[in-house]
Amino acid sequence: MRLSEVNVEEIKMELANLKNKKSSQLSLVWKRFKSNRLALLGFVFVMIIIFIAIFAPFLTPYKPYATDPSNRLMGPSRTHLLGTDSLGRDVLTRLFYGSRIALQIGVLIILFEGFIGIMMGVLSGFFGGIIDSIIMRLVDILRSFPVIILAMAIAGIMGQGIYNVVIALGIVGWTTYARMVRSKILSIKEADYIEAGYSIGESTYSIITRYIVPNAIPTAIVMISIMMPTALIASATLSFLGLGVQPPIPSWGSMVAAGRNYLLQAPWISTSAGFFIMFTVLGFNFIGDGLRDALDPTTKH
Amino acid sequence: MANTIIETKDLKKYFDTLKGPCKAVNKVNLRIKQGETFGLVGESGCGKSTLVRTILKLIEPTSGQIFLDGVDITDYKKKKLMALRKKMSLVFQDPHSSLNPRMTVFDTLSRPLKIHNLTKNNEETMIEITKLLKLMGMQPEHMIRFPHELSGGQKQRIGIARALAVKPELIFLDEPTSALDVSVQTKILKLLNKTKKIRDLTYFYISHDINLIRVVSDRIGVMYLGQIVEIGEVDLIYNNPIHPYTKGLFASVPEPDPDKKIKGEPLSGEVPSPVNPPMGCSFAPRCPFVEPKCREEKPKLKLLSDGRRVACHKDNLR
Fold first, then answer.
1. Do A211 and B126 count as a contact with CB atoms less than 8 A apart?
2. How far apart are CA B98 and CA A200, in angstroms?
3. Domain extents in chain A
4. How many domains does chain B have?
5. Burial class (CB in 10 A: 0-12, 13-18, 19+), B228
6. What is the pLDDT of residues B254-310, one digit of tens each?
7. Which residue in B90, B140, B148 is closest to A14 by CB distance?
8. Cβ separation A200–B141 shorter than 8 A
9. What is the C-alpha to C-alpha distance for residues B259 and A138, in angstroms, rounded to an integer?
10. May I ask the CATH class of domain A27-61+81-295?
């Protein structure tokens, strides 16, 4: 067929038909995510926790700091569904308010370490050479310490408090992102489509924003959703050890620690706090796995 | 006589390695005529792909000159390079990795049009892309597909369409069919042949497949260890190879008819390292006709009476 014979009007009609058929990439990802039952379950778990965190004051008649010495270490009952702790505070109320602290710390850690880590990974992977060497050796040094020991040392030096927990865990945590993003970018850089981009006249900026970043973003998203539970557990660990969130602020980690002294008389304090940690971590883990599968365009269903 | 579209003069590309420079392209002199199909053959690692990427200015040459339509483009940077990208384009060997997995066919094909301002608005872009797709024997509905939703042959058609989008004069085809199965290979080759006539193109094929090169090319060049050893009309060289390497290369092609005798001796020995090539003729260590002179002095390409050029010291090889 000669080019001049192509009927422009016909093409326009066909294109109009196409527009209706086209589904956006985002809806495609959501469709794949939905078809994964575990991922959906995780999504529901996390939604429940977020709901609790937002509406905590309306879900319970008690205040998280209100002590009631006459009702210490009460077992679960109608008035106190999960009993009370050693100061007579309602455990369920404190767990509800604890979800605010947990999500807050989790999100802050992810943002902090994710931002630093992804930036460092991109710099390292794209530019290579001496920049790469410096960043990667720094990562090696930080990774040579056991994560929680180093975080404990930093938290010990800086003192307690929400922001210090975030900084202590973030200083160690970014290394994971940096390594992953770097290796992803190194593999993308080798692909023919990068050279193809240059061969049609793309600028370096365009190569980074249109070719490298879009291919690296799924990795980053999956990593963030997988690192979320790690961050939650690490911050709970610090609180459990007394280096994290200060009492009387209700955090799950410190509630497990506080309930440990009454494990035989009032087992509901530690176990219910532990259950909340597990529930949330599981939820984020399922989401992470689901996202990994849904974001990979080559996954076949 | 047709005009020369691309010419290289003593083109060199050395890569730095720990052991010293790797001489991937070593003093290559080429002249491609407008409208012809030139085929470059050689073993894997002989520098074919590097040569093409150097001519395309995707990698910087170490020394030598490149002329496009008689203009020296060796030192072109940025803006001038952009103009160059409109005249020459490249089709890749592996269709799977040459398309951005995050871009739809529309995105992939609209990029060259947008970069070079070839279309004014979205509608024009769409029409242009539809024309390209139809030329490639594909449908407009493929526009919204992602590469992983296409077959290998379709992906390669998109790769060719991308190369055609800028309306180039010269297309480099880096083993465009070697990653495809045989039935698709034929279709792609026919398609390329048809497109060449419609668009008045010049083709520069690279391949290690001698039979393919023989079918598609007007002239061929044989490359060995970063150098052209023989260059000329395809039928002349195929029927009567002169350079000992060309003879050996053609003799190593499997012959489907068991009763036919293979002409000449197949190659023996290993290709020397391009980091440390032989002092004299680079083929001397493997050459069955080697003379002392071959080990000391590099042979130059010499013009023979039938119009081909051969880089060999021996005059009586015909």
1. no
2. 12
3. 27-61+81-295
4. 1
5. buried
6. 777 778 776 667 777 778 888 888 888 888 888 888 888 888 888 888 888 888 888
7. B140
8. no
9. 67
10. mainly alpha
